Amino acid sequence: MTETTLIVCTTCRRAAGGPPATRAPWPGTDMLEALESRELPEGVVTLRPVQCLCACAKGCTVALSGGPERWTYVYGGLDPAKHPDDILKAAAIYAETADGIIPWADAPTEIRTRAVARIPPQA
Ligand code: FES
Fold it and tell me: What is the pTM of this model?
C-alpha cells in the first residue's frame, strides 16, 4: 500500500462536462462533499480540495497522486451524483500500485474513459 492523495477540484462548474452551473453550490463542491461522506479506501490517506486543475471544460475533475516516483492521473467529465464510488474504487487500485500505473482493464469503466491526463513521475 502506497500513500495516495485524491485531489478534488472544488470550483468546477460543470457536472459530467455539461453546461456550467451559474451559481453555487458548484458541482466541484458537491463532488468533494460526496467523497467526504464516504469511507476512503485503505491507503488513500488524504482527500485534498484544490481550486482548479486547469481542465475546467471537463468538470468535474479529480486527480490521483502518490508522490514524485509515481504516475499522476487527472480525470474529468465526472458527475458528483454518479461517480464518487467509482472514483474511490480507482483510488484503491492506485493505492495498491508501486509505480502509480492503474492497469487499464482494472479501472472502473466510468473512470478509465474519463482520463484527461497521465503525468509521469518526477524521478
Ligand atoms: S474549475 Fe475545476 S478544473 Fe478548473
Answer: 0.95
